[in-house]
């Protein structure tokens, strides 16, 4: 089969939504073992040398998710920890790696998945963002190439925040990009600059704080109402007990014969 380098042109309506098993068993395994893929839909890029908001423009395909083959860059040579520090922040792993098993054979492990979140700033003082990476690697002990597959995306937020972000990105596209019909679909994809991304993130933080504050107020109100209900119940029980006690004292002792 001939090598195709422009799937979006050659395949109208093409959407790239592979399963985890397809990412590991087809795309990553073939690349690691040196087999040429029929379509060039995933490019090579060390995403850990780039800030996440730059990655959509560097991906070959993707609308909400962006895929990359990533050569592992280790801090202290082979066997050392991977270097995941960018110019403006760092990627931090969340939890332990998760085993991925085959859908057709639940006993067959086909790889591992590591989830990382991007933090702005440096370690200890980093500010958490909504950028997430799923890093997939093969389970084989020895591999001919030290390469992983990464899926980058932004964690889902509230509909209101998404609408605000979309409006900001649309405004950015209209004001900063030249109007030319010669651009490809990937050329016209817009995304926030670091400064605008920080503004959006700060706004999201403020909105989250407001939501938390409202929840606390509602929770306090519910607590007060619950306390009032309990108090009324206690008063009611006390009154009933008093009535029963009074009634028992007034009962006739019966007719004496």
Automatic annotation (TrEMBL):
Pfam families: NAM. GO terms for biological process: regulation of DNA-templated transcription. SUPFAM superfamilies: NAC domain (SSF101941). InterPro entries: NAC-dom (IPR003441), NAC_dom_sf (IPR036093). It comes from the Eukaryota. Residues 10-155 form the NAC domain. GO terms for molecular function: DNA binding. Residues 229-243 have a biased composition (Basic and acidic residues). Residues 229-257 are annotated as: Disordered. Keywords: DNA-binding, Nucleus, Transcription, Transcription regulation. PANTHER family: NAC DOMAIN-CONTAINING PROTEIN (PTHR31744:SF79), PROTEIN CUP-SHAPED COTYLEDON 2-RELATED (PTHR31744). This is NAC domain-containing protein. It comes from Gossypium tomentosum.
